[in-house]
Input
Amino acid sequence: MAPHLTGRSVQHLVELEHGRISREIFVNEAIYQQEQEQIFARTWLLVGHESQIPQPGDYFVSCMGEESVILTRDRRDHIHVFLNTCRHRGMKVCRYDEGNTTVFTCPYHGWGYATDGQLVGVPYYKEAYHEALDRLQWGLIEVAQLANYKGTIWATWDAAAPPFLDYLGEMKLYLDTLLDCRDGREGGSEVIGGVQKWCMPCNWKFAAENFAGDAYHNISHRSVDLVGIGPSGRGRRDTDERSSARRLATSFPALGHGAVSFLQIEDVPYSPSYRDTPEVEAYFKHCYEERQRCLGAGARLLGLVGTVFPSMSYLARQPRSIAVWHPRGALQTEAWRWFLVDRDAPQEVKDVLRHYAMRYSGPGGLTEQDDMENWNYASAASKGVIARRYAYNYEMGLGLPYPDYGLPGVTTERIAEQNQRGFYQRWAELMEAPSWEALASKM
Ligand code: FES
Ligand code: FE
Output
């Protein structure tokens, strides 16, 4: 399955042993189309969060790759993800972003679907169809598998894909640093506010590989630290727990995931970050103490960023958030960002975090603006016929040994690009593998 513009297989475009990756994979439309089949139609993708649909009949319209999907909770409290297209002539059955309904009624000819996907309404069923249409056969198309992991809803179109927890593998440890309560209890997060959505003129992989562990680009954010958008509205952009910790980058090349975290060498006292908002400070100090008590030495691992292959990225520190990089063409990405808080946190804490999140991330967030500017201009400067002849460099740390930190995955304290190499190793395998069965030996 070689992309026609290059005449070479994808494996030849991703030369990891030399730390080189062709620009074609970021700009070539044929490769982009191949990704839709080989990656987005088969892998587990994040669709939303259960706190967005708390009541029966609630729905949230999301995307899986280029496909519009409806995340909904039916009358019996079961969560579903359906393709947002009418079975009659394909009209989008739900054109709102979110809401509550008993029936999704197609605007074109009026077919109606219940929240469990069943076709329950067909205008002129007697007169036009003579009651011969088998409504059981024409319900909404549902994903092949769905998983609710600590409130996050994931789905895949491929019945042969491994179960979600196998797909996630030991990346679970790092994803949990995002999803668990700040006081160490499992799960317990909720989405705060709406979902921020915006478009960027770059390939989706720019964002995914950056969050998988680009520890090298800190120079991009220098201006943000000068402006001072920190937790209390001033000072450095982030919280202060990093000062006594090792910064570790971890790759799972057989799965494609990557994470960056902090590992404290020993127990350290709480480091105040919210000095201007005493109630928020008290909340996080309490969380810190509870977390130490619950997790013991496990509390020394603090999440920073990561990417669950292919397109879900997260920020596990405050402001805590999930991003999904929806592909919209080789040179276009639609970014969505959800902000998470502890469900039972006091309202003042949620309010302060909401403002912090808006300063930091999303289209108006100063840190995210820095990143987007790089991805946008790199894309524009990579698409010309001359530029495309020259590979990108992914050599950093190539061939160096990996110490054992007692953590799962290929981990290093060095600034290196093994997380990006791991991401593209899996990308290249998936781009050519005919099935999950063929890939199984590599997991
Ligand atoms: Fe939906 Fe015809 S397209 S009822
Ligand atoms: Fe950044």
User: Anything to note?
Assistant: The chain is about 25% helix and 25% strand.
